[in-house]
Design goal:
By secondary structure, this protein is α/β, with parallel strands linked by helices. About 50% of the residues lie in helices and about 15% in strands. It contains 22 helices and 17 strands. The strands form three sheets. It has an eight-stranded mixed sheet with strand order 1-2-4-3-5-6-7-8, sandwiched between helices. Helix 1 packs across helix 11 and helix 7 crosses helix 8. The protein starts with a strand and ends in a 5-residue tail after the last helix.
Length: about 550
């Protein structure tokens, strides 16, 4: 239950609300425009068991005073308000702010008065106006395009400087439009929106014309919503100049992510504040500081899995490699400077347990690559039901296990990511010799397409990689059904020679996987024959069926 009181800041009265034990560290939440302190209700609920949580209505909003003069909304007065709240609730505090709350909090954290009063600062969708002023002055065509892009996203600023029309728009229902477009549970209060327009009129152009040098050595955590329509990533690129003690994090969501995903924001705040107060850094926070991706790969003991581990490691990622053969996984780990685990992907419980362990020890992976698979050669009528179970368990259910165990963790983290599933050109190339293999890979392809649709709302991409003939050890481990042991070895030798003659290395697939993650590609055929087969399947399926009849099962 929140306790309310009123404090004075000059001629202004501020409504202050607090929850939790006052003996615990204090987290001060500052709302933006056109909101009031209720923006933070969900975050307060999540944090109040561990912290003394304070919110307040900034001047012009909620139950606080609403000065009529534009000059009464200058940033220096807003910073005075924030310090008045800090002094009233007891310093030091950890400040968390959103939108205009962040803009005014930057004024405070870059003020010498912050020393001893503010322990850390978490900013969401609200850059320092002085930093923007300097950013706007940078030269170069590419940078000018970034500035233009931001100006297009900030079109409303000019509108808010017009007489009459902005207030009229809010009174006629602009808040309902904003709530609908942004997916908010409620519309902003008209009174808060109308009075808050003065924030823009008192500060924007003044700071753009004469930006100051505003720096801080405080620990600063930036949380950037991926779908923010108003603050583009370019505005944050110079932050290390002004705040060198910086952690960068992203959250999948829109501008009002504190309202729509309070549990995610609360977790990020908790991790940051706990670390600043002397606790160990959570793996996700370490990643925010280092910028390193965490990549999880199954079947990484050789072939495409090992090559992919090497490719991501060469690009600075921390790679978690797994294989049913622990010795092979450790060899890959030694090559990549990573960690290795033994994993049978057909064991659902083991995959789920390892997913939790990896998340706890290294953080929820940004990228999960379900690569483990086996080969099987022989007609449908040579296959026993046990053969079917074996290949389906590895090639399909192994992928399902990886997708579900890690996909749920990735979605819950709120930070997005990417899942890569290794299918095959066999997924869309009917073949008498590989019916089981083709069937499982076709299932992986469709699973990936379905999962891609489901995970899009979580900011998680899904790619199906479809290699053609690639020189990997899978040929040495493929089961050739209905033949003697000697015949099987001979057929394995012949297949290995043919694949080696094709001379397409696993590293080529690895590079395509990295590109798929970066560009969020859905289906990626690799090798010329894979691309030709996909074109044939899409545009001339009858031809593909005729070709399948021509290739008979090897005797």
């Amino acid at each position: 239950m929140s306790a309310q009181r009123t404090i004075r800041s000059g001629d202004v009265s501020l409504a202050v609300y607090s929850s939790g034990d006052t003996a615990k560290p204090t987290v001060l939440l500052v709302h933006g425009y056109p909101d009031n302190h209720t923006l933070w209700d969900g975050v307060v609920s999540s944090l109040s068991s561990r912290y003394h949580v304070v919110t307040y209505d900034v001047r012009g909003a909620g139950a606080s005073s609403k000065p009529s003069a534009v000059a009464d909304y200058r940033l220096e007065l807003l910073a005075d308000d924030l310090f008045a709240v800090i002094d009233a609730v007891g310093a030091p505090v950890h400040v968390v702010a959103h939108d205009w709350g962040s803009i005014q909090a930057w004024e405070a954290v870059t003020d010498p008065r912050a020393e001893g009063r503010i322990s850390s600062y978490t900013t969401i969708s609200g850059p320092c106006l002085d930093h923007i002023g300097h950013w706007n002055r940078r030269r170069g065509i590419r940078h000018r395009l970034k500035v233009l892009n931001q100006q297009l996203h900030s079109w409303y600023i000019g509108f808010f400087h017009l007489p009459v029309l902005p207030s009229l728009a809010w009174r006629l229902g602009a808040g309902k439009v904003v709530a609908r477009v942004e997916g908010l549970p409620r519309a902003p209060r008209v009174r808060d929106a109308v009075h808050g327009i003065k924030l823009y009129r008192a500060n924007i152009f003044q700071r753009m014309r004469s930006p100051r040098e505003r720096r801080t050595e405080l620990p600063v955590q930036v949380i950037a919503p991926t779908g923010d329509k108003y603050v583009t990533p370019g505005l944050l690129e110079d932050l290390p100049v002004w705040a060198p003690n910086l952690w960068r994090r992203k959250v999948v969501g829109r501008h009002w992510v504190a309202l729509t995903k309070p549990a995610v924001i609360a977790r990020m705040v908790d991790e940051f504040v706990s670390h600043v107060d002397g606790g160990p850094a959570a793996p996700a926070l370490d990643r925010a500081k280092s910028g390193r991706d965490v990549v999880f790969i199954t079947g990484a003991g050789s072939g495409i899995g090992r090559a992919t581990a090497l490719e991501f490691a060469s690009r600075g990622a921390f790679v978690v490699v797994t294989d049913v053969n622990l010795a092979a996984a450790k060899e890959t780990a030694a090559l990549t400077g990573s960690v290795a685990y033994q994993l049978d992907v057909t064991d659902t419980a083991a995959v789920t347990e390892l997913a939790s362990q990896v998340a706890s020890e290294h953080g929820v992976p940004n990228v999960v690559i379900n690569n483990a698979g086996i080969g099987m050669h022989g007609s449908v009528f040579r296959m026993s039901i046990e053969d079917w179970h074996r290949i389906v368990d590895v090639n399909l259910f192994g992928v399902v296990n990886g997708c579900t165990a890690f996909g749920e963790l990735m979605a819950a983290s709120g930070e997005g990511g990417h899942i890569v599933n290794l299918a095959s050109a066999a997924a869309y190339t009917p073949n008498q010799e590989l019916p089981a293999y083709s069937t499982t890979k076709a299932a992986v392809l469709m699973l990936s397409e379905c999962l891609r649709a489901e995970m899009a709302k979580h900011g998680i991409g899904v790619s199906a990689i479809c290699p053609g003939i690639v020189d990997t050890p899978i040929t040495r481990n493929t089961s050739f059904l209905g033949v003697s042991a000697a015949q099987q070895e001979a057929m394995r030798d012949r297949a290995a020679r043919n694949y080696k003659r094709r001379n397409f290395p696993p590293s080529g697939v690895a590079r395509e996987i990295v590109a798929a993650v970066r560009q969020n590609k859905a289906v990626v055929p690799v090798t010329v024959e894979a691309k030709a087969a996909l074109a044939g399947y899409r545009f001339a399926p009858s031809v593909m069926r005729v070709l399948a009849r021509k290739v008979e099962v090897s005797k």
